[in-house]
Amino acid sequence: MAVERTLSILKPDATRRNLTGRINAALEAAGLRIVAQRRIWLSTAEAEAFYGEHKARGFFRDLVSFMTSGPVVVQVLEAEGAVARNREVMGATNPANAAEGTIRKLFAESIEANSVHGSDGPESAAREISFFFAAVDIVG
Ligand code: GDP
Question: Of 33, 63, 101, 111, whose Cβ has the fewest other Cβ atoms within 10 Å?
Fold first, then answer.
C-alpha cells in the first residue's frame, strides 16, 4: 500500500480539555506520523468553507458554531494507507457507536463534539490538506 497523507483536526472540545497530547499519542501509536501541525482559531467563513459539502444538512449551523467555539489543531498525518488508518483509530462519528479503544470512544462528548476530524478519502485529503497547509509546511 502506498504512503499517503490525510488531514486531521483536533476539535475545540479536545483543545478545551487539554487532550491534544493524548490524542496525538493515540495517532502515533496507530502508526500515523504527524508531518505538519498548527494550532489555529477558525473564523466562521473558514469553517463554512471547510465544511461546504455539509451545507444542506440540518446540523450545518451548529457544526460551524461548534468548530469556531475555540482553538483547533490542524495536522497532516502520514502513513501507508493513512486515510483509512486514521478513520479506524478515530472511530464512528457518533461516540455511542464507536469501537472500544478508538479516539472518539475514549474522548468524544457527543456526535457533534467528537474530538477529531479526518479526511474520508484520498481526494478530500488532498483538498483539505491544501486548505490549511502549503507544501513547504509539510515535512515528511
Ligand atoms: P465524520 O466524517 O465522521 O466527521 O462525519 P460527517 O462527515 O458525517 O460529519 C461531519 C461532522 O459533523 C461530524 O464529525 C460531527 O462533528 C458533525 N455531525 C455529524 N452528524 C451530526 C449530527 O447529527 N448532529 C450534529 N449536531 N453534528 C453532527
Answer: 101
CA of 117 to the centre of ligand 1 (A): 9
Strand partners of residue 4: 79
Query: Does residue 1 surpass a pLDDT of 80?
Result: no
Length of the chain equals: 140
Pocket lining: 111 vs ligand 1, CB cutoff 6 Å: yes
Ligand 1: residue whose CA is nearest its atom 5: 93
Residue 13 burial (10 A CB sphere; 0-12, 13-18, 19+): buried
Task: Tell me if 19 sits within 8 A of 137, measured CB to CB.
Answer: no
Phi, psi of 6 (to 5 degrees): -140, 155
